[in-house]
Amino acid sequence: MASHSDTLVVFFGATAGANGGKLGSDEREIILLVWQIVDLHEKKVGKLQRRLVKPDSLELTDQSKEETGLSVEELYKAEPLDKVLQQFQQSVSAELKALGRSSYTLCVDGPLIIRQALHPEASKKNLVLPECFYSFVDVRKEFHKCCPNAGQVQDLTLHSMLEYVCIPELPLSEQVMGLKEVRCMVQLSLHILAEPYNHKFSCFEAVKYKLESGACSKTEPVDSETVIRARGLPWQSSDQDISRFFKGLNIAKGGVALCLNAQGRRNGEALVRFINQEHRDLALERHKHHMGSRYIEVYKATGEEFLKIAGGTSNEVAQFLSKENQVIIRMRGLPFTASPQDVLTFLGADSPVTDASDGLLFVKYPDGRPTGDAFVLFSCEEYALNALKKHKQILGKRYIELFRSTAAEVQQVLNRYMSTPLISTLPSTSMVPMPVLATPPYLATGSTRDCVRLRGLPYTAAIEDILEFMGEHTIDIKPHGVHMVLNQQGRPSGDAFIQMRSADRAFMVAQKCHKKMMKDRYVEVFQCSTEEMSFVLMGGTLNRSGLSPPPCKLPCLAPPAYAAFPSPAMLSEAALYQPPLLATPRTPQPPHSPHPTPTLAYYPPQHHPAQLYMNMNMNYTAYYPSPPVSPSTMSYFASPPGSVALAAQQPHPQGHVASPMMPQHGALVRMQGLPYNAGVKDILSFFQGYQYSPEDYSSMVQMSQGQTRSLIQPKEWLCL
């Protein structure tokens, strides 16, 4: 209502569940409404009105029965909410006419009855509330403005305010719930209107009629105390559905950002930005309220998270979204050759696009290639509904999907496609001669159990999801200590390893996060050591019975001869299970000490027939081990501890220091799963047809824990 209202309608309500400071937090329906008119000019009051409201569910909590004194039988005879609201309008209009007044404003004790009870319930029941319920004054804020020394607004109560201005409490005979609160508010209002206060009610609060669309810039400051994350949304829900869920609370312009998964589809989450912290705090009270048959989880979020989803820098997007109060529809699956005129023809005359082709935004890759997505603006809901009726109709030879969209989704989709590299990022193919490098800290092996293994991750989980899953324990993760495990196709395998600062921290994480939920799956968390992490990344298994070495599942390949491999005499058993390459190799750092730690050999190309060839098109897989000469090692492989470094430092017989490159003929292969009774002749017979000399091989057969392995060095490289 207008701020010049000359009449107050003091208003109170109660629900079938929690009341007072928790009013509306349990989704219970309104069962009681009480009101009384106050003439601000004549300082007169009207008749006290009390109405019972029949809820759809005739159930009362014990607390509600005790506080209201109502029974199910009384409510059964009452009128439903829409009928009672009609009676409210008729009663107030009649009294205003008798007083000769034309306008009024609601006066309440706190915003809960309006924002958390009346508007959400009316939205669920598809009731159209009278205009008066979209503006009100809060007697607490008015009193605080009049008497600032009385205390903070959130700490004020009717009792404390009456006591501050020395108004005696009502007699016990008049302390019926609803009647008592309204009479106290009327007394308080009349008191501050009179001398010496002469207060004028001016702190009018508004409830937004609808959600305002708009664009958000990445440079725009967003207060973290105004943002929440809603989780568990139906995938087809739109920003309007989210706005209805938070009905009664004021969402900032363009403040709904639907989150997308890696495939560009909605993942059931949204970030919502409110106009201030008070509304954000009220939104948190709607945790596990229902949208249809689904309950929605509501959590705090940060301004950075909101800008990451909703913020944008594209001038084209800003211009497209500059048209306010437009309905946005997303089209997906368009032919790559589709033109603006094709889209306008497809939508037809019953759903005209705002500004014709200027109301279309085609999503493209950085090189200008179309992605098959587009966003369309419509000036009204009717046109948008007509367009949605064409969902899965054919354009050209393809069916087109149409969905409701938001300004934040436009930004998010454009940001994602525009940041997509034109080609996949591959390690540099340039090989500059370098000394032997020390293994980075994350590859160092040890028996200290300062790592944890996460098993059963959702395949869509990213590092950000893992950090959110870890919660408060993220501060104990070592720098660059989160390692995603990929399968042979380079896709997430559902496993990850995390290096913690100490074994105690790793134990704490394993205890507190084991079988904790991530999205819709529970994740198992185990404590392990760096050595165990390396074994598993190489394809071995880690279980309660201990470590099992990795299986050799590589395809049979016969590439050209390779050079620069350690001689069998220098090769230790540790070389069989080398520290793996992680999903994202990082640039090794120079060593700081000459200690014999595990080293990472880097082999430069030689102008020699037996040079090292690297097939950069093969993806490294953490579950499929790579032997020292595998083409998939992407320029890196781990050498035996200290062996290459020592070889590089020892003087050559001719007087100069040996190079890290140690050219020799042939290569090393590993055989696993040999029969227990296999001998040297059996192994040589197995390699019949390959070029080798008896003096050029060495064989070692080990019998350990039911496994047999053999190291041999033929003249041609073979991987089994």
Automatic annotation (TrEMBL):
Task: Report the protein's function.
Answer: mRNA splicing factor that regulates the formation of epithelial cell-specific isoforms. Specifically regulates the expression of FGFR2-IIIb, an epithelial cell-specific isoform of fgfr2. Acts by directly binding specific sequences in mRNAs. Binds the GU-rich sequence motifs in the ISE/ISS-3, a cis-element regulatory region present in the mRNA of fgfr2.
- UniProt feature coiled coil, ranges: none
GO BP terms: namely: cranial skeletal system development; mRNA processing; RNA splicing
- Localization annotation: Nucleus
The cross-references to SMART domains, in alphabetical order and at most eight, read:
RRM
Instruction: Mention any one GO cellular component term assigned to this protein in its UniProt record.
Output: nucleus
UniProt family annotation: Belongs to the ESRP family.
**Boundaries of each RRM domain copy?**
227-299, 328-403, 451-526
The organism encoding this protein is Oncorhynchus mykiss (Rainbow trout)
* Signal peptide start-end: none
Task: Give any GO molecular function from the UniProt entry.
Answer: RNA binding
List the InterPro entries hit by this protein, alphabetically.
ESRP, Nucleotide-bd_a/b_plait_sf, RBD_domain_sf, RNaseH-like_sf, RNaseH_sf, RRM_dom
Supply the alphabetized keyword list.
mRNA processing, mRNA splicing, Nucleus, Repeat, RNA-binding
The superkingdom listed in its UniProt entry is Eukaryota
Q: What PANTHER family does the annotation carry?
A: HETEROGENEOUS NUCLEAR RIBONUCLEOPROTEIN-RELATED (PTHR13976)
Q: What is this protein called?
A: Epithelial splicing regulatory protein 2
